[in-house]
Each structure stands twice: as structure tokens, then as C-alpha cells.
Design a protein that fits this description.
Blueprint (H helix, E strand, L loop, with lengths): L12 E9 L2 E9 L5 E7 L6 E2 L12 E2 L1 E5 L8 H11 L4 E2 L7 E2 L4 E3 L15 H12 L19 E2 L2 E2 L1 E8 L5 E8 L14 H6 L7 H13 L13 E8 L3 H18 L11 E10 L9 H22 L3 E3 L2 E3 L2 H5 L20
Parallel strand pairs: 6-9, 14-15
Antiparallel strand pairs: 1-2, 2-6, 3-5, 3-15, 4-9, 7-8, 10-11, 12-13, 13-14, 16-17
Helix pairs in contact: 1-2, 5-6
Length: 359
């Protein structure tokens, strides 16, 4: 049984730490790899990225596997969340062994951040090492294949897309070969996810499911956004982050190719995309449970196409499951508030409310 989430890739777990109230609107999300790690790669296309350990993922370099990936709010300050994840992994002897003692390990934990500073009202409210530890503990506590909380949780807590509230979304697909490809996205873009002429989500045009809003509903939404323009003006920095995972056995070079083509999924759902004010970053993880057909040199193509498709679906889901925010840091209505929410869009299949974690 699948849950249409990143955790459909066997061995991966996802945990959130969410901070709201007292000026905070931020959090962190951890994707925890299996105990023996996962082959990983990254492709950065935004002009203002905030990342950690991405050079280690270059196919030319030594590291072959990672132990976790951290997605965090707080801009570059929030990258400190990765330190808490590293400490948790070190305590369990998980990492690259660098000495004669099995406890002598260095966990490889790539991380990337989104800009959400001040969105809760307090510019200094941001994830730290304790936040990262809470998120990885939440991930570890989940059962294999567990549903992933979505919407305004973890790194998506303070996310904004254009003038709308953003968040976290996830999706998965199983190919005819039996290989699973899945994505988890933090939708936090300077660009818009909504066609200004019709109100339809750009991503829905590619996701095979389009619901055109009533014309009067769309006009009312535009009026509402105009009223809020000053309070919810897009900040100078944003960033959309994604983790695309598969149970296929990939080399680091193949994983990097998957990360690159998966960016197409962001481009289908957000316009404009990959701006200097974005830090758009896609990580890939490959657990190696299924081998690609060695007789077919183009077997990777199916994964490349699926990576982009699942990223688009994950962004659409993030926008649908986000909830409006109106507070001291600004006002960002949700797509559901402006256009109505289809029956079933807010099912618990995805969402978990606020708190210190979303496990």
C-alpha cells in the first residue's frame, strides 16, 4: 500500500519540527535515509541559494552516501538545524567512518534553507540545532511507509508563494518497471503559482487535473490580493526546495541528472522561476533496492520524467493544503481561502497542525 508520499520509497522517513507563536513562523524538515545511507546528488538553479555540504555530493568527490537531508527555514541562520541532526546521527554511529573506533564517524547531512525571516513578526525566530534534532527524532519515530504531514509544517511553516501562503507537499508514483519515484517540496517562491487570467494553478495544467475557478470568484480573489498587497508584498528572497527519491540503484552521476530534470517540475508550477532572489535547490536520494534494466541504456529516462511530474504534483498539493496567515509579520491568504477548497483537498492524508513536531 502506498501513501502517495516520499515515504513510499522504502527506508526513507520524514519528520518535522514546527515553531509558531511568539513571533515565530518557521521550522525544519528532515528526510532520514536508511541506516546504510543513500546515494545522493544535488542541482542548484536559484541565484541566491543557502546550502550546506552540497559540494560533497559532486560525482567527482569522495562521499558516496548521505545519512539525512535537512530542509529548513530561517535563511542561512537556519542551516544550524543540520548540526542537531549530525549530533543525533553521531550518537548512533551513523556516518562516514574516519577512525579505528566505530564511533569515529562524520555524518554527511546536506542541507538547504528557505527565506522566512520575520514572517511571524520576530526576525530572530529561526530554526537552530535543537530544531533539527527534534525533526530527526520525529522522523525516526515514524513507522516505515507512514503518511507525511503536509501544508504549513516543518520547513513549510513560514513558506510563501508569490502573495499566497505556501507550505510542504509530497507525491509519489510507481513506474511500470516497479521502480518508485517520489518528491517532497517546500513551496516558497518569489514567482506565482496562479495564472492571473484564470486563477487556475499552473501546476494543475500539467498534473492532469484542472479546476478553473468561477470568473467572479477569481475577480474577488484578485481584489483581496490587491487589498493585501502592501502587507503581503513578496520579500526580496524566497526559494523552493525539493527532495526527489527513488528506490532504484543509481550512480551519483545518474542521481545528479535526476536532480537536474526534476527542476522542470518547479518550472511547470511556478512562474517566473530560478530567479536571482530564489535559491531553488533539488536533492536526490537513491536507496538502491531495484536495479535498472542493464540491457536498456535509456532506462533512466522514465525516472527523469517521473521526477519532474512528482515535483509538480507536490507543489500543487502544498498550495492546496496551506492555511492562511494574518499576523504581525504579514498577511498571506491560502489558495483555498481565495478560491474555495475542493472536497477532499484538506484530508488528513497530508496535514498535521502546529506544534513542535509533525510526526
Amino acid at each position: 500500500m502506498t501513501v502517495d508520499a516520499l515515504t513510499d520509497v522504502t527506508g526513507l522517513r520524514v519528520g518535522h519540527a514546527t515553531h509558531t507563536g511568539d513571533g515565530a513562523l518557521t521550522g525544519a524538515t528532515v528526510v532520514l535515509a536508511p541506516e546504510d545511507g543513500a546515494v545522493a546528488a544535488v542541482d542548484v538553479r536559484g541565484g541566491g541559494p543557502g546550502t550546506k555540504e552540497t559540494d560533497a555530493l559532486d560525482p567527482r568527490n569522495l562521499v558516496q552516501k548521505v545519512q539525512a537531508v535537512v530542509l529548513t527555514g530561517g535563511s542561512a541562520y537556519g542551516l544550524d538545524a543540520a548540526s542537531g541532526v549530525m549530533a543525533w546521527l553521531e550518537e548512533r554511529g551513523r556516518g562516514v567512518r574516519v577512525g579505528p573506533d566505530p564511533a569515529h564517524v562524520v555524518p554527511v547531512v546536506p542541507a538547504a534553507c528557505v527565506f522566512d525571516l520575520g514572517r511571524g513578526g520576530d526576525f530572530r525566530a529561526r530554526p537552530d540545532a535543537a530544531t533539527g534534532r527534534a525533526a530527526v527524532e520525529a522522523a525516526s519515530a515514524t513507522e516505515p511507509g507512514a503518511p507525511v504531514p503536509q501544508g504549513c509544517v516543518g520547513a513549510g511553516t513560514g513558506a510563501v508563494v508569490g502573495q499566497l501562503k505556501g507550505g510542504i507537499g509530497t507525491a509519489s508514483t510507481v513506474l511500470e518497471s516497479g521502480v518508485t519515484v517520489a518528491a517532497l517540496v517546500v513551496a516558497n517562491a518569489a514567482g506565482s503559482v496562479v495564472d492571473p487570467e484564470t486563477g487556475v494553478l499552473y501546476g494543475e495544467l500539467f498534473a492532469g487535473r484542472v479546476r478553473y475557478p468561477d470568473a467572479e470568484v477569481h475577480r474577488a480573489a484578485l481584489r483581496r490580493l490587491e487589498e493585501l498587497a502592501e502587507r503581503s508584498a513578496p520579500p526580496p528572497l524566497n526559494t523552493t526546495l525539493a527532495v526527489v527519491a527513488t528506490d532504484a540503484a543509481l550512480t551519483k552521476a545518474q542521481a545528479q541528472k535526476l536532480a537536474g530534470t526534476s527542476h522542470d517540475g518547479i518550472a511547470r508550477a511556478v512562474r517566473p522561476v530560478h530567479l536571482l532572489s530564489d535559491g531553488d535547490t533539488v536533492f536526490t536520494l537513491a536507496t538502491g533496492a531495484r536495479r535498472l534494466d542493464p540491457a536498456n541504456p535509456l532506462a533512466l529516462n522514465d525516472l527523469l520524467a517521473a521526477g519532474a511530474d512528482t515535483v509538480t504534483r507536490a507543489i500543487v498539493r502544498a498550495v492546496h493544503l496551506a492555511e492562511s496567515v494574518d499576523g504581525p509579520g504579514g498577511a498571506w491568504p491560502s489558495y483555498g481561502e481565495l478560491y474555495g477548497r475542493e472536497k477532499g483537498e484538506a484530508r488528513v492524508e497530508g496535514r498535521n497542525g502546529s506544534g513542535t513536531d509533525g510526526s
